[in-house]
Amino acid sequence: MEVMKAIVCSKYGPPDVLHIESCKKPIPNDDEVLIKIYATSVTNSDIFIRSSKVHIQVLIPFRIMIGILKPRNKIIGQVFAGEIEQIGKNIKNFKSGDKVYGLTGFSLGAYADYKTMKEINSKQGCVSLMPENLSFEEATSAAYGGLLALQFLEKKIIKQNNKVLIYGASSTSGIIALQYIKHFGAEATCVCRENKFEFIKSLGADKVLDYTKDESIRQLENYDLIFDCVGKAKKSDLREACKNHVSTQKDFISIDDEPLLLSSNRLMKIKELVESNVIKPVNDRVFLFSQIVEAHKYVELGHKKGNVAVTVNSIT
What we know:
Layout: E1 3-9, E2 18-24, E3 32-41, H1 44-51, H2 56-66, E4 79-87, E5 99-103, E6 114-118, E7 126-129, H3 136-153, E8 163-167, H4 172-183, E9 187-192, H5 197-202, E10 207-210, H6 215-218, E11 225-228, H7 237-242, E12 252-254, H8 264-275, E13 283-288, H9 292-301, E14 307-311
Parallel strand pairs: 8-9, 8-11, 9-10, 11-12, 13-14
Antiparallel strand pairs: 1-2, 3-4, 3-6, 3-14, 4-5, 5-7
Helix pairs in contact: 3-4, 3-8
C-alpha cells in the first residue's frame, strides 16, 4: 500500500486538533484524475469545518453534511493547486503533467499530498487548468477568491463610471472583485480596516472607508452596486447602513446569498483573466505544511489581506 502525508481533523475543535498522519494514497477510478497537490489554502470555510462554529440555525444541516460528531472525511481542506500524476482511462480533458487548480467541494481532502477528482463538475468539486503565470500558492488564491467573486459579479452589468462599494475589500474574494470591476471602469469604494487602506489603494480603490468608525456611515454615497464579501455572520453598523444606499435591494449582493457554485468553466475564465493581467490574486502569507495549526490560528484572527496559502509539496 502506498502512503501519503495528510493533515487530519479527527474531531471538531480549535486549531490544535489538526495533525499530520500517514494515510493511504488514493487510486483514481476510470473517470478520475490523481492530482499531486503542491499548495492549498486556509479559508474561512475550512475554519468552520474544523471548529463546527456555525450559526445555530445551520448547525444541524452542517453536521448532517460534514459529519455528526466529527468530519466524515478526516482530511479536510477545499482548495488545491497541483499537477496531474495519473489519469483514468475515461478522462478526456486532462493528461498527466497538466498543472491544475480547483475546489474539492463536499469531498474535502485538499490538505494532503494527493487527491482524486472527477473532471465533471459536481458538489464533490471542480478542476481546471491553472493560470500559467502563477505559482501553485497564488493559484489557490485565484481559485477560491475568483469563484466567489465572479459567481455574483458576472450576473451584473458593470459599466464605466458605475459606483460600486465592496464591503470586505481586503478578503480573498474582495481583492478579485475590486480588480474585476476596475477592469470595466467602475469607481470603487472599498471597506476595510484603516491599516489596509494603502494596500487596497494600490490595487485600484478610488475611495476607502473603515467599517469600525462611525464617521464612515456619513461618507456613504448612493451606489449602483454593493458587494458584501464577508457574509452575514460579520455585522457592523456600516454594513447595515449600506443597504439604504442602493436603489433596489437586488443591487445589494452578498457571498451568503447562495451556495458557492463549483464550475470548471468559471475557473477557465479566471485563468484567462489572470493571464491577461486583468486580475492578480494576492497571498497575505504562505505557511509550510507543518505549520497548519499556525495558519488556522492566523486566519481565525480575521485580519488577513487576501489569501493564506499552505505549501504542501515543494517543487523539485
